[in-house]
Amino acid sequence: MKVATWNVNSIRSRLDHATQWLQTNPVDVLCLQETKVVNETFPTAAFSELGYIAYIHGQKSYNGVALLSRQPLDKVQYGFAPVLGEDRVGDLDDQKRVIAGLWDDIYIVNLYVPNGSSVGSEKYEYKLRWLACLKEYLAALLTEHPNLNVCGDFNIALEDKDIYNSEGKEKHIMSSPTEREALKEVMAVGLKDGFRLFNDEGGHFSWWDYRTAAFQRNMGWRIDHHYLSAGLSDRALSCTIDLEPRRWEKPSDHTPVIMEYA
DNA sequence: ATGGCCTAGGATCTAGGA
């Protein structure tokens, strides 16, 4: 069983890439972030032709997440509120960043964590509030679903070796100590980094800035993750980053990360 | 280098990304 995560930076701009990738990489579930399209305009038909059911949670212009699945998912939920309630969640569901569903006994949570803009900004405070809410959400889910695959664009590189050059990291968005600590707090509910089950090296990245020819120079960051509950990490077989789509013409700035289970 | 590029929306620029 394979689950992949991929921030496509607009599903309409990346439709050919997504369908081409699925044809050579027929994963069971593909988790998309930054679809940037309302549900009515999501290109559902292109994926149903390939045998995928699309569960979509979009908005105009920004954010947006989707689950593409080769079989129907149970208990599909949109946002934090179905688990935590509207009173707790407040404005954190206004941006469409969370979708989840059950494949057999594996509950798959697909996240687009807020970027945060810059350390100390209003958006950074929103990111930290969002991560605190995420911790409560995942803790609640774990009581019902022991096999949890939490994946997506986390917009955080957890360790210095997840960045091509960690100089100045304390002040940089995606690597500042406070947001790293917030993510570690989330993981403390009982989640492990799926990639690190198989690989301890630095130099493995999932995102490269469009500017400065960062991909060609391998100036990347590992910010797209699969986090696994203890029950599920025992069944993990591999976690790989597919660099190929990042080499294609007009690529997303992110590339897929694939988790495989027994 | 408060730089470099890309997307959507709506319009020849701004917001947001990371």
What does this structure look like?
The strands form three sheets. Strands 3-4-2-1-14-13 form a six-stranded mixed sheet. Strands 5-6-7-8-12-9 form a six-stranded mixed sheet. It has a two-stranded antiparallel ribbon with strand order 10-11. The protein is of the alpha+beta class and 262 residues long. It contains eight helices and 14 strands. The chain has a single domain, classed as 4-Layer Sandwich (Deoxyribonuclease I, Chain A), CATH 3.60.10. It binds one DNA strand of 18 nucleotides through loops. GO terms for molecular function: double-stranded DNA 3'-5' DNA exonuclease activity. Its EC number is 3.1.11.2. It is an enzyme of class 3 (hydrolase).
Order of helices and strands: EHEHEEEHHEEHEHEEEEHEHE
| Mean pLDDT across residues | 97
Q: What name does CATH use for the topology?
A: Deoxyribonuclease I, Chain A
Helix content: 10-25%
Give the number of helices. Answer: 8
N→C terminal distance = 6 Å
> How many β-strands, per DSSP?
14
Low-confidence stretches: none
Second rung of CATH, namely the architecture: 4-Layer Sandwich
Strand count, sense and closure of the main sheet? 6 strands, mixed
**What is the spatial order of strands in the main beta sheet?**
3-4-2-1-14-13
CATH class: Alpha Beta
Structural class label: alpha+beta
In CATH terms, the superfamily is Endonuclease/exonuclease/phosphatase
GO molecular function: double-stranded DNA 3'-5' DNA exonuclease activity
Domain Endonuclease/exonuclease/phosphatase: 4-254
InterPro entries: AP_endonuc_1, Endo/exonu/phosph_ase_sf, Endo/exonuclease/phosphatase, ExoIII-like
Enzyme class: hydrolase
